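=== RUN LOG ===
request id: a7f3
mode: sequence -> structure
chains: 1
length: 452
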Amino acid sequence: MAKANGSADDLLNLLTDLIKDARKAGADAADAIVVNGTSVSVTWRLGKLEQLERAEGGDIGLRVLRGKRQAIVSSADRSPSALKELVERAVAMARTVPEDPFVGLAEPGELARDLPALDICDPAEVSAETLIAQVTAAEATALAVKGITNSEGASAGWGRSQVAMAASNGFARAYQSSGSSLSVSVLAGEVATGMETDYDYTSAVYAADMRKPEDIGRTAGERAVRKLGARKVKSRKVPVVFDPRVARGLVGHFLGAINGSSVARQTTFLKDSLNTEVFAPHITIVEDPHMHRGLRSKPCDAEGIANRRANLIDKGVLTTWLLDLRTARQLGLKSTGHAGRGTSSPPSPGSTNVYLTAGPLTPTALMADIKDGLYVTDLVGSGVNTVTGDYSRGAVGFWIENGILTYPVSEITVAGNLRDMFKNLTPASDLELRYGVDAPTVRIEDMSVAGE
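=== RESULT ===
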C-alpha cells in the first residue's frame, strides 16, 4: 500500500490501490478521495489572546458501486488494517442499500483532459505571530473609533489543504489550496442609551491579497457607531437598496434556486424557467471557476468533468442549471461540471466563483431619485421559501430621504417574492470580488417594509 501522507503521487497511488482492492472485493466501480489539512487560528479580545490553535489531520473516503447501488465509507485511520476494513464495509453496504438508477461514474470520454493552472495555493505558511499581529491591529483600530465601547473580539486564520481524487474510470487529480481570513466585531454605545454591534472581515487565497487589519478595524468601528440611535419606520412599499455585503445573499438565493438537486426534486420556484427571462435584460450573472487566485476556483469538478466560465444569467435569461452527473441524469441532461465532494458524502452540485456584474451608476446616483426608501446593511433570520420564492427577513440599515441616507433604522422587516425582486433589480457600479459570491450595491423597486 502506498504512503498515506506525502506527495501528490503518494496520495494518488494510495487511492489507486484502494480502488483496486474494492474492485477485487466485488465493486463494479469505485472512486476515492483523500484530504489532508493544516490550519492555524487565533482569537483575541480586549488586548488579550483567548485562543491559539494549530490543527493537522485528514480523512479518506471510498465510494463503491455495485450495479445501481452505492455506498460511502470514510475514516481518519489510514493504516493497512483500517483501509482493508474500509473496503470490506463499503462493499458490504453496497450489497444491501436500495438501488438508485441515477448513480454512476463519468464515462472515460467525459473526463477533462487539460486542466488550467489557477494559483490557488499560497506557498508561504502564515505564522501564529503574524495572525496575532493582525488581530491586535484590527481590534485596536476598531476600539480607537470614537463611540466604540466594547469588543466582541477579533479572529484570524490560515489553512492549507492537500486533496487527491481518483476513480476506476481513469480520473486522477491532486491539488493544494490555501486560505487566510481576518475578522473583527465591536460594540458602540451604552446599555442605558442603546448599543449596536457591527463587524468587518476579509479573506483571500494569498495572505498578501487581504485587506489591511487597520482597514478592517476602522470599517467595523465606523459601521457600529453609525447605527446608534436607530428608529422604527412606518410600514409601506418603497424602493429598497441592498449594501454589497447583503446583496451577495440575493445571488446566493438565485444559486440555490438553480441547483440541480432542487430542480430534480421540483422544489424551486425557478423549476420551469430555463432559457426564459428571470432577471431584467440589463442583468448578467457570471460564474468563473478558473478565476486567478479565486476563493472557489477549481480546474475541473469533483467527478472529473470540465468546467468553464459562463453567464448563468445572460441579459436576464437563465442559461443553465448547476448539475453533477446524478442530477443531470435525473433531468435527462449532461453534467455542467458543478460536482463537489467530501470524504463522507457523494458528489452534489455547487457553484464556484459567481458575481452579479456592475451597472453604470454609482451607488449615490442609484439612490438619487428615491424620495423615501430603505438602505439595508444587515439582514436577520432566514425567511426565504425556495419553493415559492417568498422572501421575508428582518433588516437593519438607514432610511433614505430625497436620495440621502438620513437616520439608522432597525426592528423592521423587508418582504417580497424573489421572482419579482429579480425582475426589478438594478445594480450599481461598485462591484468588488471579495468573497467568492459577490454583488455590487443593488436597488429593488416596490418592496414591502414592515415597521410600526
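=== NOTES ===
The first helix runs from residue 8 to 24.
The domain at 8-38+54-110 is CATH 3.30.2290.10 (PmbA/TldD fold).
=== END ===
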